[in-house]
UniProtKB/TrEMBL annotation:
Signal peptide per UniProt: 1-27
Protein name, entry field: EGF-like calcium-binding domain-containing protein
Gene Ontology CC: clathrin-coated vesicle membrane; Golgi membrane
Transmembrane segments: 570-593
GO biological process: protein targeting to vacuole; ubiquitin-dependent protein catabolic process
PANTHER family noted in UniProt: PROTEASE-ASSOCIATED DOMAIN-CONTAINING PROTEIN, PROTEASE-ASSOCIATED DOMAIN-CONTAINING PROTEIN 1
Keyword Glycoprotein: yes
Pfam families: PA, VSR_TRX
Keywords: Calcium, Cytoplasmic vesicle, Disulfide bond, EGF-like domain, Glycoprotein, Golgi apparatus, Membrane, Protein transport, Repeat, Signal, Transmembrane, Transmembrane helix, Transport
Amino acid sequence: MRVEERLGLARLAVAVWLLLLWGGCEGRFVVQKNSLKVTSPNSMKGAHECAIGNFGVPQYGGTLVGTVVYPSANQHACKEFREFDLSFKTKPGGLPVFVLADRGDCYFTLKAWNAQNGGAAAILVADDREEPLITMDVPEEQKADADYLEKITIPSALIRKNLGDSIKKALSGGNMVNLNLDWTEALPHPDERVEYEFWTNSNDECGPKCDGQIDFVKNFKGAAQILEQKGYTQFTPHYITWFCPEAFLLSKQCKSQCINHGRYCAPDPEQDFSRGYDGKDVVVQNLRQACFFKVANESGKPWLWWDYVADFSIRCPMKEKKYTKECAEQVIKSLGVDLKKIDECIGNPDADENNPVLKAEQEAQIGKGARGDVTILPTLVINNGQYRGKLDRIAVLKAICSGFQETTEPAICLSQEIETNECLENYGGCWQDETANISACRDTFRGRVCECPTVQNVKFVGDGYTHCEASGALRCEINNGGCWKESRNGKTYSACIDDHTKGCKCPHGFRGDGVNSCDDVDECKEKLACQCPECKCKDVWGSYECSCSGGLLYMQEHDMCINKNTRTEYSWGFIWTIILGLAAAGVAGYAVYKYRIRRYMDSEIRAIMAQYMPLDNQGEIPSHTHASRGSV
Ligand SMILES: *[C@@H]1O[C@H](CO)[C@@H](O)[C@H](O)[C@H]1NC(C)=O
Ligand SMILES: *[C@@H]1O[C@H](CO)[C@@H](O)[C@H](O)[C@H]1NC(C)=O
């Protein structure tokens, strides 16, 4: 054990209590398991568990499909596959290759790096003993040749020995073994807000892990702040501390590594008590970061934490001996956060008392439910599930995005940089209209979806796969609503009508499906118009022309020819008739009047005369008189 040799006896004791603590935690450490589905051969079909490695780029929210290759040589993948003339590059039309490697002989990370360089899309490491799955992690040693760690982009998964054995057996029997590595359900409880925790450390001298952590904070800061400001996420930073066992309270080690009388400890950054910063310096800076978050959160700006941590790592690095209170306070002031409140929160590190913030952190360290204890630094916990994989901005963003229920994800999750680009090829198989350059394909971080689009405020409706059509007002504005339209000799006809909610209809004078074609109807040939004896019919595009022989006029609405003059003569004749009629009536009336007067005078005269001389028909006279008087 190299560490102990270097550190000497005194440190051995500390190492032992640390190991004891770690050992005690191991039972509660939850290995993040993912589903690995074997899709062929039939005899092996089914879901298995695998443990995603804590490096490489996982595909949270997505699935990776591939075929397994167990290399004929270099089966531990500890050497470059090039040396064995092996390549796993995907051939056109072929499935991506998952290299199956055996556990042992070298770091998991080196195996992944070699597989990646060999062209593999993922690496499966078969355990070399029967045991529960473990999480493959990055080596702790600060080795110079570890720069490749940052460059691992393929995902990795550890599988149980028996699954590895059956895959090997199937392959050697000439079977093709195809798998789905599935991250779609890796993070639980998707809803409209994602809660995530980042377990981190202000220490910047712990090798690749610290470097990766700082790079992550700098790269992820922007996205984290947008998500937090818009209320899509609730982020909390966390810091791990240990306590010093009572027997060691007065030891030099606990004094240099702990604050508040052994209550909160962190390992010495250089693992050397005699130089550089001590563990307790790290604890205090961690506490300052935790307090910064608390104060910033209370003032409603939790996202300032990202600025503080990024700025602190740039402005106050250990390497430049600036990892100090003064430097930290300058950064805090520059961000406009209340320094006094932070000082109050830190309290007195030498006092024999609890610090409420660190006490809460120690309690949070212990796993709750599905999460398990946090023992690896840095660790990202999303929706109470531990993220496994490289802390890469896009990979983490995908993981956070997969914690949202579909359709509730924020715009940043649908942005181009984390999408799958499946629409670039053949519009992802979705509906498309190439002439109008419209497609139903939409890339998302979950893969492509086929949804009818909304273009220039015009909503397309349909199943998205075979059919989408513009609907509502304005729909004819876009590609003429998908309907037929043609112009000839300055005339334009269209089969799209804006007030129709959908569909195409050939205009009057045309016949057809309205989508691909509308054909001119020959009204003359089909005897649809202009059929009167004097009519002469001529078909034109979209209509017809009708002329009448013999100086007659064609009246389209009646589809008949009429004499241009008839109409006026008739009306004059009519007027004359009325005038003459009126005159005749007047004359007739006058004649009747005259006749009546005469008859009246006659009867009057006869009545007078009757008073003086008896007349023959006496009986008639009174009634006659009476009647004649009454009527005129
Ligand atoms: C941050 O503030 C929010 C709302 O004010 C609160 O719900 C949350 O618990 C706070 N987080 C911490 C870690 O104090
Ligand atoms: C189609 O539209 C996309 C963006 O919507 C654009 O990038 C592409 O150049 C367009 N293609 C054509 C042929 O207009």
